[in-house]
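User: Fold this; tokens only.

Assistant: Input:
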Amino acid sequence: MAKMPPSLSTALIDWLQRERLKPAQPIGNSQRKTETEQLALTLVNTSSNKKSNSSKTRKSRSHIRLTQLFAAGITKSGMPIRVKLKQELAKKCGHKYVTKGLSFSQKGTVLYQDEEFDKPSPLARRVNSSAANGWEYVEVLKNGQWICLDELRKIWRTI
């Protein structure tokens, strides 16, 4: 545009501005016809279903505490408890489980060496001196059989 004669560049600018202000017009005589449709909506009240499923959903996703198993009657005070040792620690100690010093309190927590645990993983970590899944490593004697807490947690979720 800099090399155009001033009259031509002015005319071009004027023409561009006029074209921008014009509304877009359809080509030819054809105009688009827009058809409208009525949509039918069916509203379903799901609040009663949500309420019954929400507690199950919460149970399946929530972090369960040992006191919750105790409150449900799944574990009991005085019930024998043991923690599985990791392989390398078991070889060093000469046994697979720690049972000494472990007990359920009157409120359902586990007592070990003057510490109280309401979650099994911190207990398993304390016994093994490294991270461990307490739901797999902690077991209780129930009906004459050692059962890992994960099995008891599954029972709690169905209640």
